[in-house]
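Sync notes, pocket subgroup
Present: LS, DG
LS reminded everyone that the earlier model was apo-only. Rerun requested with NAP included. Inputs:
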Amino acid sequence: MRVAVYLPAEDKTQWWVDMLQGLLPGWDVVSLDAAADPETVDFAVVWRPRTGDLARFRNLRAIVSIGAGIDHVLADSELPSDVPIIRTVGADLTQRMREYVALHVLRHHRDMPRQLLAQAQNDWHAIVVPVAPNRTVGVMGLGNLGAAAATTLAQLGFATRGWSKSEKTIDGVTCFAGQGGFDTFLDGCDILVNLLPLTDQTRGLLNASLFRKLPKGACVINCARGPHLVEDDLVAALDSGQIKQATLDVFHIEPLPTDHPFWSHPAVTVTPHVASQIDAATGGRLIANNLMTFAKTGTCDDVADAERGY
Ligand code: NAP
Ligand code: GLV
């Protein structure tokens, strides 16, 4: 079996080639650039491939996304349409996202930005906030990551809600589904966490209309994809006080351009797409296992539904 690896936006392709080669003895793992005869490649392992990169490989059996989202693969308008896309998910990714969401929800809940501002002014300013059961947190997207994050928030004691496409039952979480449940879900959410996949239905969902449906002074955490957010709408909502604070891990353009206003906005916390980056060694093992299973059976657990976009 021949595997071609490609992470054009990062300088890590050769590292992944060497790691996967060690995990797939008897297979031939190469960088996509070095795949002299594209017809001989069975699997492509990619993160943010460029348009047209994958179309050259006419005998691909599957494409592996080094990550949970497949939007970066589907964004290629020349993508061969009938090749299965395998996501890379698992306990490591889920745990990291639970930690990130808990950290930033607690930070907003305890009003840490205001507390740190008081410290900077040598101001002994005691901020007393409601207890977690009196704080409503909503999680949009109840898949691998959203369901785990919502469960963690419920375990911390927050009044936790979740929203997904289909109906769900999650211990300690009040679940809403579909367009019909959306406004009721949003109504009263003090802190909103986005963990939706990026699709035609979810692009731009974090917009002025949504912000108006949240209570005044709500906080927003976007740890899914940058294009979920209409950036100008968020800036307007922050400036009017409708939204008090935002934590943003993902952006329309990554890395976030150095002159982007989010860097210095007093109500925005920027993290550089680190909410849940899979540990490479763990990711490598998951990918190798998925490839071996797929080679043997023609499928594996983590094949995404390209038609629905996640
Ligand atoms: P997933 O398992 O595919 O789950 C997606 C969830 O979103 C499902 O619950 C789905 O509902 C729901 N959903 C999809 N479209 C919807 C719609 N139109 N309306 C309502 N709900 C909708 O995804 P995941 O593994 O949890 O990952 C979610 C996203 O997180 C990824 O796509 C990726 O973009 C992002 N991510 C970010 C980082 C980071 O470091 N910032 C790391 C990993 C992933 P159903 O269950 O009803 O289908
Ligand atoms: C990271 O953003 C992922 O999709 O896993």
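DG: The chain has a mean pLDDT of 96.
LS: The chain has two domains: 2-88+278-297, 91-270.
Action: DG to write up.
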